[in-house]
Amino acid sequence: MKIxxxxxxxxxxxxxxxxxxxxxxxxxxxxxxxNEKAVDWARKNGSRASYGTFADAAAFGELVFNCTAGTVSLxxxxxxxxxxxxxxxxxxxxxxxxxxxxxxxTLSVCNSDSLGEQIQRALPKVKVVxxxxxxxxxxxxxxxxxPGEHDVFVCGNDVxxxxxxxxxxxxxxxxxxxxxxxxxxxxxTEMILPIWLRLFGLxxxxxxxxxxxRS
Amino acid sequence: MKIxxxxxxxxxxxxxxxxxxxxxxxxxxxxxxxNEKAVDWARKNGSRASYGTFADAAAFGELVFNCTAGTVSLxxxxxxxxxxxxxxxxxxxxxxxxxxxxxxxTLSVCNSDSLGEQIQRALPKVKVVxxxxxxxxxxxxxxxxxPGEHDVFVCGNDVxxxxxxxxxxxxxxxxxxxxxxxxxxxxxTEMILPIWLRLFGLxxxxxxxxxxxRS
Lengths: 215, 215
Hints:
The structure is a homodimer of 215-residue chains. Chain A is α/β, with parallel strands linked by helices. Helix content of chain A is 38%, strand content 23%. The first copy, chain A, has helices at 10-21, 36-44, 54-60, 73-80, 82-85, 115-122, 137-141, 159-171, 186-190, 193-203; strands spanning 2-6, 25-30, 49-53, 63-66, 89-92, 97-98, 106-107, 127-131, 151-156, 176-179, 208-214. The model of chain A has no long low-confidence stretch (mean pLDDT 98). Strand 11 of chain A pairs antiparallel with strand 11 of chain B.
């Protein structure tokens, strides 16, 4: 599949590399047409990897991942152009972490709204699926680094779009995928970030992830 | 130990009953001196169970559980009287769920503050330990109803107070207790409620709990 990745940070690079490894073609997009990190990532990832602007990545992808920082996601998606995204599945991996008031970060949107919902409202013809935002990017692409059973949460309004994203998630090696329902569940998965950040402080470099223990 | 329970709802009743069963004396407090549910609970739980006002329960307990609804906890604790609570450990089990704007509930405080912190600020001479607020009360008192390993989170500023609470939690049968640090971590455990509510909708009456999968 042709996949667009918006964002050149750790998350975009990890997902892009994984998608290349399992056979997809990936274009990494950023604000500029030749972002240094995107160029570097594409050079390391062979002929199926390319780079360009947000609009280039959005136009290229049959499916697009939003891996930009949550506080700039809406601007990045606007720059990508709604016509380039129309009708496509957008996997929103971003978290609205606001570091501007110091540590720990707060959420720039939460409680009665979420970044996932804001993106869905801004792009009503795009099928937004929130996924993967509750874990470190190393865990996203290699779930076995966390011992035992653990879960990835998905939510979104379009059932077929979710099914397509679930298929990709399974192809990464995931066994347990919990569908939380429509995109308003993004409030829940984004608001899990404050405890995630505490746990990250506690476990440092030891990988961890959420598991819903259940019968 | 003599323990005060503030609140006569499901959570207060479940914790009170468990504490009686394992040998403690418990006084359940409410706004009125003879709340019908408190009278009924005490009648069912034998000679070590009693009831009274919030102030009676606070004065009685060497350790006190706040099991009131989060949106009225500060008023209930104020009514209990800071002199009745001074120097004691207060286990805050409440969540600031606001149902006044319809379903799903929002949090009346979150993101840059939490109910746990509000209570600690209102009662600076009380040792507030946030615990148990991330699960159903049936799971609190009988962790084995959820299969596999799963966790209870604690946080608070006073290390000795946390150790005392951890001891009680262990006496309920808990194996894995995660200390998230000071009381500001209550933001994290309270903000986990939106996803908990989604999961509750998904699993209905099947008990579940959070587990942090880790090495």
